[in-house]
Design brief:
- By secondary structure, the chain is of the alpha+beta class.
- It is built from eight helices and nine strands.
- A seven-stranded mixed β-sheet has the order 2-3-1-4-7-6-5. Strands 8-9 form a two-stranded parallel sheet.
- The radius of gyration is 20 Å and the shape is elongated.
Length: about 270
Amino acid sequence: MFNIIATTFFGLEPVLAEELMGIGANDIQIINRAVLFRGDNEVLYRANLWCRTALKVLVPIKTFQAYNDREFYDLARRIDWQKYMTVDDTFAIDCVASGPIFTHSKYLALKCKDTIADYFRDKRGRRPNVDIEYPDLRVNVHVYNSDITISIDSTGIPMSKRGYKVRQVQAPLNEVMAAGILKLSGWDCKTPLIDPMCGSATFATEACMMAMDIAPGSYRNFAMEKWRDFDAKLWGNLRQEAKERRLANPTTEIAAYDRDPMALDIATQN
């Protein structure tokens, strides 16, 4: 087993912790906007496939303290990056920094990019390329004061991007937030549900997926599918299991209304 971090919105941490408990996660610990836990590859894959209230699922590979960019560079260079990618793979860096020591996330992301590029230049004589949109490896850097955690991102595009929205209205409700509100409301997936101001039907669609026991990750791909040690057979089995769990004839009544004809058209398509 290894350490894993699932991020979420503030206030949804207990809901996410309950979801993680349901998929077999161990040593669950709630922190600010995230939940720490331990698990194996199956738990990691299930977290991406089944957690409705998670935004990202990250696997920490190094934690350390640094007080300037030079220390950060030196310590990040000690990571065995060949374990996670080859020089022919592409990569991208996401960075979130808070506190008085590191005040520019983009600059720190650039320093992390340099550590990876220089590591492979020394090892292989050339540097891997960056691909911001579709990298083979996405690296996450989280900084709070001097405490730094470097993780590999198993999710990629945030899990709120379920893949079912064909169109959306202006300022649409985030899917993770919608699922979290439904869970916090205590809705049992059987009681009739009405959304009188449905917009692009986020509440209604999330409710349908919950009532039919459809895994929220069913309609999309994940960054972990490009990992060097990705277990395609295990992932295929889990996706098949999720497909077989779907309720073919749900009886829950769910209705979505809106005064805007365009919103209704968008909701219907979704």
